[in-house]
Amino acid sequence: MSDKFRCILITKSESGQTAAITELHDSDLAEGDVTVGVTHSTLNYKDGLAITGAAPVVRKFPLIAGIDFAGYVLCSADERFLPGDAVVANGWGMGETHHGGYATRARVKGEWLVPLPRTFGPSEAMAIGTAGYTSMLAVMKLEDLGLTPDKGPILVTGAAGGVGSVAIAILSKLGYRVIAATGRMNEGAYLRGLGATDVIDRAELSGDVRPLAKERWAGAIDSVGSKTLANVLAATSYGGVVAACGLAQGMDLPTFVAPFILRGVTLAGIDSVQCPRPRRVQAWERLARDLDLAKFGPAITTARLSDVLTLAPQILKGQVRGRVVVNVGT
User: Fold this and answer.
1) 261-273: per-residue pLDDT in tens?
2) CA 314, 317, 92, 14 torsion: positive or negative?
3) Rounded to an integer, what distance in angstroms lies between the CA atom of residue 317 and that of residue 217?
4) What is the mean pLDDT of residues 1-14?
5) Are strands 105-108 and 68-76 parallel, antiparallel or unpaired?
6) Are 236 and 157 a contacting pair, CB within 8 Å?
7) Cα separations (Å) of 83 from 88, 94, 114, 285, 307?
8) pLDDT at residue 236, rounded to an integer
9) If we measure between CA atoms, which residue out of 203, 202, 200, 210 comes closest to residue 230?
10) From the CB of residue 58, how many other CB atoms can be counted at a distance below 10 Å?
11) Average pLDDT over residues 17-34
12) Which of 5, 34, 144, 159 is a plausible cystine mate for 180, CB 3.0–4.6 Å?
């Protein structure tokens, strides 16, 4: 086997940050006790930020981009993994401080890897990706905090994106009535196909924030942040739960304490990067059980490694629907 592998490498010079396809050697891999032959990755909003340099995601240069991957173990010093095992990895600083998944080879700590459920191959795992894994963590948090389908509808913001699309599919299969909020109202049929009962324009949540609004949903999964999250909180029913897992609109939160102290609303943060391994394993097992990937046929597109460079700015503009599976070997 050749010691060369192909990747998207991000470099930085006095003129700025650059991302390009290049070839490296095994000696260039990061530290770790498991080497994986990567077959697939995916495209996340965070990947778009990293590759374009629109936000300081990458904190070490040069660095292989990509915050997740799936593939097969090549060699392992971790007794939990054997050559040929199918594995998936999300987060842990990959694509930020540690070489990531936009490569045909990766070396990571065994602790970062999750055995791939038999239900999925690497391609299916990356149709889910970090976005879908994050969605499952958010659903699990809503459940942990007592939300059940009989409590009322669940709002999903950024509904046509990766996190939103998977969240809708999971929640609908679990019996929840789902309200999808999107800036792309032309995607209404797609969102209803995933299981959304109602589709609303994100403009309803983008205006000035009031301390409290009419109670509209028992809970929410928000990947947008800023004014949208503040308006979501204001319209959450008594005892409701909102899981926040993204900041597409902004990092700020111009809200009031009223939803928390007058309605007992809980705002729960979802971290997919440093999430402990047992919770990750549980999330992937739940995805294998509670996500119907067949619903995503029209929402899954495939891309080559080189296509990622073009798609990165598009995802930041909200021009990428559903899930993109990147075949890193092409």
Assistant:
1) 999 999 999 999 9
2) positive
3) 28
4) 91
5) unpaired
6) no
7) 14, 22, 14, 22, 30
8) 98
9) 210
10) 22
11) 95
12) 159
